[in-house]
Write a structure and sequence with these properties.
The complex is a heterodimer. Chain A is of the alpha+beta class. Chain A has 2 helices and 6 strands; from the N terminus they run βββαβββα. In chain A, the strands form 2 sheets. Chain A has a 4-stranded antiparallel β-sheet, with no helix packed on it. Chain A has a two-stranded antiparallel sheet with strand order 1-2. Classes of the chains: A alpha+beta, B alpha/beta.
Chain lengths: 100, 421
């Protein structure tokens, strides 16, 4: 079983998450050329080995995460929030609640 | 190579089976070939066979990093059908089914092709309308297709779960000429037949790099030395991107995903057809092998992977599908499960095309559908390599179809490889 250590919820089975895709894909500006959009939408490096990828904790905190995982062995090396600014807000709200 | 016949069986029966020879040679690689195919799976072997028979190109090598038929050829559920609707796919898969129908005789090898009907269960009027559109298209394009009402279905397959309140079965879409075959026999049959024409099948020979001179590929670096090539064809589903990058051609519109399949312990004859069940997110297909095992599978594991092993939640999902549609399987035990590496493309359709390197050809992106496609895939790929131009049927099986906006999206799922099941 793949288990992902969600920074918000703790260690959970991967079946709580949905896989997004290769996190290295950056979408170009809206007015960028056809070639750039073609490459971003359709082409994939399809890494065999360590890959940074997005997962959505859809049956948990619903946050998007960036997971570093080996696509050959399934070993997970690191997990972080995809949107660190949001993570900060959530964590500060949580600590405020605790203080009350 | 001696031909299999009634006479050869009698002769060997009388001589204590001592007259059988090995079925293909185990040659050392020569210095140079006219055509080198990478990947001795079903597609690579079929390509070599049709190069030799249809195009008289016989100075051919097929390189394989493991053993022949040891990848996805041995990791599928062996279903053969041609119920595709999109232009291009329709003609391609129909051609494949026709090749299957004559394959055992053509190869002089029993591939155990069994036209046992492909039965897709329907659960709502909308599903029936959609099936009617697809199956009418098939009828109008020289194939066979039927819609069964409930009484016919109940007579044909009496032990399905007809009491499911949430997903009642209302009928089925059926292709009678569809069915399945024995996967190993297909690999062995093509290998044996190609070998008869002088094709060298070189196993334990992994490609580690390419040799490029003046923009052309002049050979391949392998674990068994450098092998020169006039033309090169890649047919390595699962690892297409790696080989593509080895040739310094950038990225492909492909992601590698894993798909699991399962076989139960052998039981007495239970199911005469291939049955497909797909509703409300479920996706499940099952048939019974000649040995008696129930062979079945479902969806991908939903995350990208090069590991040829799957995860347990998918085992549970697929087994839940099995018992919900055939409750009588509840106490049947699983014998084995395995997983293969799928070249999931951006629109669910394959590539058989020329590449930016003039003497390199690509055969990739087979998604779930590679097994049934293998005869036609080899047929058209051989045609492309020999004549250096695509046959009109595979005009859009190209890499630039996304740029041109002529995607062949059978499922209408958009550019997300994992959704093209």
């Amino acid at each position: 079983m793949l288990r992902i250590n969600c920074p918000f919820c703790g260690l959970r089975d991967y079946s709580e998450f949905t896989y997004g895709g290769d996190a290295s894909v950056v979408y170009p500006d809206l007015d960028a050329g056809e070639d750039e959009w073609h490459d971003a939408v359709f082409l994939r490096e399809n890494i065999r080995g360590l890959q940074r990828e997005t997962w959505h904790h859809v049956q948990g905190c619903r946050m998007w995460l960036i997971v570093e995982r080996d696509t050959l062995t399934h070993e997970i090396v690191g997990v972080e929030a995809a949107h660190p600014e949001w993570a900060k807000v959530i964590q500060s709200q949580a600590s405020e609640k605790k203080d009350q | 190579m001696s031909k299999f016949s009634l006479w050869s069986i009698i002769q060997n029966g009388l001589s204590r089976q001592r007259g059988w020879q090995r079925q293909w040679r185990d040659p050392n690689p020569r210095e140079k070939y006219d055509v080198v195919i990478v990947g001795a799976g079903l597609h690579g072997l079929a390509t070599a066979y049709y190069l030799a028979t249809n195009h008289y190109v016989r100075n051919v090598a097929v390189l394989e990093k493991g053993w022949l038929g040891g990848g996805n050829a041995g990791r599928n559920t062996t279903i053969i059908r041609s119920n595709y609707m999109m232009p291009g796919n329709r003609q391609f898969y129909e051609h494949s089914l026709k090749l299957w129908e004559g394959l055992s005789h053509e190869l002089n090898y029993n591939v155990m092709f069994s036209q046992r009907h492909h039965v897709t269960l329907l659960h709502s009027p909308a599903a029936r309308d959609s099936a009617a559109r697809r199956y009418n298209t098939m009828k109008l394009t020289d194939s066979d297709a039927e819609l069964w009402e409930l009484p016919t279905l109940k007579k044909e397959i009496p032990h399905l779960n007809y009491d499911n309140a949430r997903f009642p079965i209302i009928g089925a879409a059926v292709q009678r000429r569809a069915g399945n075959a024995r996967h190993d026999a297909v690999a062995w049959g093509y290998a044996r037949a190609a070998d008869t024409y002088g094709v060298d099948i070189i196993q334990n020979c992994e490609v580690t790099g390419v040799v490029r001179e003046n923009g052309k590929l002049t050979g391949l670096k392998t674990t068994r030395g450098k092998i020169g090539a006039g033309k090169v064809g890649f047919a390595v589903a699962g690892n297409s991107s790696r080989l593509w990058q080895m040739a310094e051609l950038g990225n492909l519109p492909i992601e590698t995903h894993l798909l699991q399949a399962f076989v139960s312990e052998p039981i007495k004859p239970l199911l005469d057809h291939v049955v497909v069940f797909g509703v409300g997110g479920a996706h499940f297909y099952i048939s019974q092998s000649d040995k008696g095992g129930m062979v079945f599978g479902g969806d991908l594991d939903w995350y990208k992977s090069y590991a040829q092993r799957g995860n347990l939640p998918t085992v549970q999902d697929v087994c839940e599908c099995a018992t919900s549609i055939l409750p009588c399987l509840g106490r049947v035990r699983l014998l084995r499960h395995w997983s293969g590496l799928m070249d999931m493309s951006m629109d669910g359709s394959p590539f058989i095309c020329k590449t930016p390197i003039e003497n390199l050809y690509l055969n990739a992106g087979w998604n779930y559908g590679g097994f049934k496609a293998s005869p036609a895939s080899g047929w058209y790929f051989a045609d492309l390599i020999a004549n250096d131009r695509p046959h009109e049927t595979i005009d859009h099986f190209t890499l630039n179809r996304f740029r041109k906006g002529v995607i062949i999206d059978e499922r209408g799922a958009g550019p997300d490889p994992k959704l093209h099941g």
